[in-house]
Amino acid sequence: MPKRYFTLLASLLLASGCTTSAPAPGSATAEVLLRTSSSWNGDAFTHYPTGTPALSLTRIDIPPYTTLEFHCHQTLGLGYVVSGEIEVQTRAGERIIARAGDTLAEVVDLQHRGRTAALPAQLLVFEADRTAPRTKLGEDGCRAASAEPVQLATLLNLIQRRLALTEAVALHKWDRQQPVLDGQREHLIRRSVRRAAHRQGSSPERAELFFIDQMEASKLLQYSLLQQWHVQSAAPASPRRDLASQIRPELDELQRQLLTALSSFDSTLGTQCQAELAAALERRGGGADFKHAMIRATGNLCPNP
User: Structurally, how many domains does the chain consist of?
Assistant: First the structure.
C-alpha cells in the first residue's frame, strides 16, 4: 500500500478526534460521615486525654446471635459499621441500632454492650487515647448507670449538651468580634422560659433562675475559650456554624427538653440532692474549665441545706 495512503489515514484519524491520549483524571470527593461533640446517647464530650497521644483503628467481627459483655471505653472513639447490623445498649436501657454504612460516636466511661441478630456485623473502631485503647469489661472502672438517679442523669446530660455548643457560639463571636454578653437575647430567654414553665404547671421563678445559671455557665466557658484564643492569637480552624440559623435552633430545642427534665427532677427531689449532685459532677470529670462551667450551671439545682 502506498506510503501516501497511510499519511492520509493518519490525518483523517487525528481530524476525527481518534487519539491515544490518556483520559482526564477524575475528581476526588470527600464526605464527613460524622462530626459531633457528644456520644450517640447524648452525653457531651468534655475533654481530650492528656499525655502522649496514641491512635488505633480496630476491626471487630461479631457472629450472628452474639451478645457481648458489658464493658466501657475510657477513650474517645468512633465506630463504623462495615456490614451487618448491631444493637448497642447501656445498662440504663438506652439503645441504638447501627446498620451497614452507619457511623456512631462511642459512649465514654459508661457500661454498654452490643448484640447481633440474624446478621453478623463487622465494625471499624477508631480510638484516640494517650497510650493505647483502654476497654474494661464488667463494672471495673466504668461509670455504672445506677450511680446517679435517672432524673438527675437526664438533666446533667442535657446541661452538658448545651455547654457543648459553647465553642461554636464563641467561634461565631470571635470571627465577628461580637461581645459575649447579649442582654437582649438573655431577656428573651428568661421571658420565654417563664411562659413555658407556667404552661406546663411549673414554677416560672424556678425555671428562670435555672436558665440564668445555664447562661452564666455558658458565658464563663466562652470567656475562658476567648482568653485562650487571644493568648494563641488564633482560634481553632473548626468548621463554623451560623449562630442564628444553626446554633440557636438547637439551643431552643434543648431549652424545651431542659424544662421538661427540670420538672421531672423537681418531682423526685430528695434530701440527698446536694450529695448526689456533687458525686455525679465528680464522676463526669472533664477539663477544669468545663467542670467549673458545670458547677456554675448546677449552682441552684438543689435546695440550700
Answer: 2
